[in-house]
Design goal:
By secondary structure, the chain is of the alpha/beta class. It has helices at about 5-15, 70-85, 140-145, 220-230, 245-255, 280-285, 320-335, 360-365, 380-385, and strands spanning about 25-30, 55-60, 95-100, 120-125, 155-160, 170, 175-180, 195, 200-205, 235-240, 260-265, 290, 300, 310-315, 345-350, 375.
């Protein structure tokens, strides 16, 4: 196989001649043997004059035909060859953005990376081949954050069933955006007390990788605890709401007093009956009440009083019933009054390509002022509309 890939040597030579001009590189390839010429692309000597700012790395392997080495063994040997010493392309002082794919099988904290130079970091988690000993829980997340004191954005996975030994909180003075993908469905409750994030403004909690749902109320939820600790400083939040019970979700919403944009991801028919879902009752909780539909004073200030944008992404269900509640919500949030007016809404339903009714037409029929307002993410079946 090595003989078949000799042509790569010439290509690699050409690429290496231009390293001084590299600003962004993305390496996504499969290695067939440990001494592949491609490894030289990752052994570029750090240079004070380098202008390289962004590196994306996603490397796979081909299983040995003899069966002497598993894909895990080969990738482990190959990554050990260049990640734990130097020189390494990841040691450049100029690098600010580093993205790792899902094929890393080495402890990233011990890699030859100029961690303090990073301002943006993304990691999809360790590749779980066979009996991989690598995990990424609270301790691993805290260890990584300590290495990167200048991060502005960070996207990481997080396992919740690992022991936690850290006791001293760490401060990330510049971190503005944090994105977490739980391995199961919730983040550990012990994470929030161990971080100090004075600049945090955006939080994204993705759907977990395991399809095992036992939703938590605000007492047992790591997401709810995190929002309770940092909610008043957040302005942009994305939640996969099935990790919470209705009371858990309500608890979170009441702590998001300064949120400007909110995104809900949900299945209309949840995997567990106890899960929070997007329902008309939920929208009623977000909808301000007035003395009358045409005028009058505001009777109550709803949760999320500063909301300007909302995005709804959910699976197939009774989207028409939810649409009515959404129209009521938008109409009430577009009125002039004591709360911020909604400026943008997105309504995305999986597996439903076209709605039977146009929400903008429904709003116009109610004489809602739509100046400066946008409603996106959907299409209307024109034949049904006629």
């Amino acid at each position: 196989m090595a003989e078949d890939l000799r042509y790569l040597e010439g290509l690699v030579e050409i690429l290496l001649e231009s390293t001084a001009r590299w600003k962004e590189v993305a390496f996504s390839f499969t290695i067939p043997f440990i001494d592949t010429p491609l490894r030289r692309l990752l052994l570029v000597q750090p240079s004070e004059s380098a202008i390289l700012r962004k590196v994306e790395l996603n490397v796979g392997v081909v299983a040995s035909e003899s069966g002497a080495q598993t894909p895990y063994d080969l990738l482990e040997l190959w990554q050990m060859d260049w990640m734990h010493g130097g020189p390494s392309i990841l040691m450049h002082d100029s690098i600010r953005i580093l993205n790792f794919g899902d094929r890393i099988v080495q402890d990233i904290a011990s890699m030859a990376v100029n961690w303090p130079s990073l301002t943006h970091f993304a990691f999809k988690g360790y590749r779980q081949w066979g009996a991989s000993p690598l995990h990424f829980g609270v301790d691993e997340a805290l260890g990584l954050l300590k290495l990167c004191p200048n991060l502005v954005t960070c996207s990481i996975p997080m396992e919740s069933n690992l022991p936690i030994f850290s006791t001293k909180p760490i401060t990330m003075a510049f971190l503005e955006e944090l994105s977490i993908t739980p391995f199961a469905y919730d983040i550990p409750r012990d994470f929030a007390p161990l971080v100090v994030l004075p600049s945090l403004r955006k939080l994204v909690i993705h759907q977990g990788e395991e399809y095992i749902w036992v939703p938590h109320n605000y007492v047992g939820s790591g997401v709810a605890q995190f929002i309770q600790r940092f909610g008043d400083q957040l302005t942009d939040v994305t939640l996969y709401i099935h990790a919470l019970t209705p009371t858990g979700l309500d608890h979170c919403l009441r702590h998001l007093t300064n949120v400007i944009r909110l995104e809900f991801c949900s299945e209309y028919f949840p995997p567990n009956r106890a899960c929070a879902v997007l329902t008309p009752q939920l929208f009623a909780r977000l909808t301000p009440e007035y003395e009358s539909h045409t005028g009058g004073h505001l009777l109550n200030v709803p949760v999320l009083p500063k909301l300007e944008g909302v995005a709804l992404r959910f699976g197939f269900g009774d989207e028409e019933l939810l649409l009515d509640a959404l129209v009521d919500f938008v109409a009430a949030r577009r009125r002039e009054g004591d709360i911020v007016r909604l400026r943008k809404a997105e309504f995305v339903v999986a597996w439903v390509h076209k709605l039977r009714r146009d929400p903008l037409a429904l709003l116009r029929a109610r004489n809602v002022n739509l100046d400066g307002f946008s409603f996106e993410g959907y299409q209307v079946d024109e034949e049904l509309e006629m």
